[in-house]
Amino acid sequence: MPQSPTALKSKTTQLYSDPHNPFLHLERGLLYEGLGFPDLAAADAYRALSLFESVVDPDGCEFHARRVVSPDGCMNESFDCGEEQEEENDSVPITRDEHDDTIGKVYILLVRCLVRCGCLRDAYEFCGRGIVLVRGLHGYNDEEEELRKLMREIKRVYLARMNKPATSDESSGGDGAEINPSILPAQGFARRVLYPWNEHEPDRKAPETLRLLNERLKDVAPKCEVRAVALPALHANAATTAEKDKDNFHDHQTDSDVSIQLGLFAKEDIKPGEILLRESSLLTATNRLHDDLCDACNAPLPDLSAVEPPVPCEDCDDTIFCSRQCHDQAQQTYHGAICGLDGLQSIGKDIPDPKDKADYLYLLLLGRALAMSATQDVHPLELPEVKYIWGDFHDYDYNYDDDVDANVDNDPSFSLPFSFHLNILQPMRLLEEMALDPFVSLPRYDTWILNTLYAKFRGTASGRLSTWDGGPEVCAVHPLWCLANHSCDPNVRWEWGGEITFMARGETEKAVWAGLSAEEREKRRKTSSTGIRADEEILNHYCDIGLDVKQRREWARGALGGLCLCERCVWESGEGERAK
Ligand SMILES: C[S@@+](CC[C@H](N)C(=O)[O-])C[C@H]1O[C@@H](n2cnc3c(N)ncnc32)[C@H](O)[C@@H]1O
Q: Does residue 31 lie in a domain region?
């Protein structure tokens, strides 16, 4: 049976009013699972688990499992005490018996959903812990059997990865040998969708949105304008979105394989070498532990002996800004809520495996967005740096059919990288270090909100590599800069120090197409304009344009959501005119 969206809405309302009640987390998790969101279900199951653990180990846990009781003293399913946190004297502790009766179900939901997302390493750890706990509490029972079934599923994937056949024990339903969990993937995927209950996403192509963005663009890029544009649909169901949007889009494009999005256009001619956009942003992050970069804009810090030396925060000496302006903006924008909170400094910075560095930079961007939201007392999805940026969402059918059992292997909308650590555990740590209760603050920082932030950052952030080891070390979202679309034959190049800039490419900086004869090359040179003409689209590049077509497509795939179909790629891959 499809789960009801109304049931989810009312369970969420109940949960926000009674946030330390582990039963509500478990119940909402089951609803999320039924609606096809195993990632959100896993997060709820983990919150239920943390609360239940406080029943057994109250001294080891900061947040304790309690449930609100209604004024007449009974546990009331529909009791709604509003937005406020439950009062201590209106709530009772969860008992040990309740823990013992329910903890098996919590482990099963957590493990099952992590498996469906493909986060097998953490699924394995929790599954092992769950089996031991359930056996200790009740002896062998159905719940242990369910967990053992999940364990066999995890081990099957492990054996397939190791290219080993299952032993006769495994084939006949036994648990098989111990495995090395580090071989299992920690990172899986969540659905990258615009959640149907997300009321913060604007109509990005509405005239009032374009007016607002163009107003902001006046200072940053006075010769440019934001317009709706038809792009080739690069992931499977983007075309459906375009179909829905056609009525609102007044252009000549009628092909269904398009995705209607925004782009940047020149309003007037721009000369080669001219800087057409300058934007600075405080939505930045760096994984350098003791760096010499401005905490706000990530520009290099000036020398101590400079006329305008670096400016430290008066209240926490470790935080340094490149200028008085960055200092003042930071205090109002994000630093106010986190000033002096030392525990935050180490989160996401000291990453042992270089492969994880880029993913942890997104966590740090998330941390900056949470600090902005707390300092300004604004919902994170309403932040001006976040609200209008592209999230590369897939379509989602709310009448989700439970029987389909959507998972990472059978549904292309599972395209948002998702892991237990980056999407569940570390965000809870961030909130705790910000002195926020991660349960009470769910209305602002629920997992679907964090996933939406991640989707937006992954679609738009730019990165800078370390000159030391070549790994990613700084990233940022520049909300106007990131409106420019990609081409492997771009008409601008970009540079990023403190601010990010676009400069119009001159003739000698244009991409050289592979496979063109000298004659064709000369013909292209003569017909292509120098600089950028009025009404031409500003085309950025999301990868190194010196690479060959195969490598370029691989590099840009993450940012584009699919293989690049720009004119140059189509030509060089032989998919276009040349193939005919
Ligand atoms: C940084 S955003 C660019 C701005 C975006 N079009 C918007 O509406 O805000 C990146 C997204 O734009 C789209 N995009 C950019 N360049 C494209 C291209 N050459 N072909 C198809 N889609 C492109 C992809 O969907 C990609 O995920």
A: yes
pLDDT tens digit string along 373-405? 999 999 999 999 999 999 999 887 766 555 557
What is the three-class DSSP state of 260? strand
Nearest CA to ligand 1 atom 18: 486
Mean pLDDT of the chain: 88
Q: Tell me: the pLDDT tens digits for 105-128?
A: 999 999 999 999 999 999 999 999
Q: How far is the CA of 229 from the centre of ligand 1 (A)?
A: 10
Give the nearest ligand 1 atom to 238 CA.
25
User: Distance from the CA of 364 to the center of ligand 1, in angstroms?
Assistant: 24
Atom of ligand 1 nearest to the CA of 460: 1
Give the CATH number, domain containing residue 11.
Answer: 1.25.40.10
Question: Is residue 57 assigned to a domain?
Answer: yes
Residue 181 Cα to ligand 1 middle (Å): 37
Quick one: CA dihedral 249, 252, 258, 263, positive or negative?
negative
Provide the pLDDT for residue 132: 97
pLDDT in tens, 512-545: 899 888 888 777 777 776 789 999 999 999 999 9
Question: What global pTM score does this model have?
Answer: 0.91
Residue of 389, 416, 486 best suited for mutating to test ligand 1, as the one with most atoms within 8 Å of CB: 486
Poorest-pLDDT segment among 174-183, 239-248, 298-307, 318-327: 239-248
Total domain count, the chain: 1
DSSP states of 515-560 as a string?
T--HHHHHHHHHHSPSSB-TTPBPEE-SS-TTS-HHHHHHHHHHHH
Pocket-testing residue among 262, 387, 485, ligand 1, by greatest number of atoms within 8 A of Cβ: 485
pLDDT of 237 strictly over 50: no
* Pocket of ligand 1, beta carbon within 6 A: 231-232, 234, 261-263, 390, 392, 459-460, 482-483, 485-487, 560-561, 565-566
Supply the residue whose CA is at minimum distance from atom 24 of ligand 1: 560
Distant-in-sequence, close-in-space partners of 503: CB < 8 Å, separation ≥ 6: 273, 274, 275, 276, 492, 493, 494, 495
Atom 22 in ligand 1: which residue has the minimum CA distance?
A: 231
Residue whose pair of structure tokens reads 């490419």 in the numeric block: 505
Question: Has residue 342 got a pLDDT over 70?
Answer: yes
Q: Give distance in angstroms: CA of 539 to centre of ligand 1.
A: 10
98 in any annotated domain: yes
The rounded percent of the chain whose pLDDT value lies above 70 is: 86
Q: What is the mean pLDDT of residues 138-160?
A: 93
Domain that holds residue 20: 5-68+91-117+120-185
Q: How far is CA 405 from the centre of its chain?
A: 23
Residues 505, 539 contacting (CB under 8 angstroms) = no
Going by the DSSP 8-state scheme, the letter that residue 477 receives in this structure is -
Q: Is 346 inside any structural domain?
A: no
* Distance from Cα 27 to the centre of ligand 1, integer Å: 38
Q: How many A from CA of 99 to the centre of ligand 1?
A: 48
pLDDT over 90, % of the chain: 69
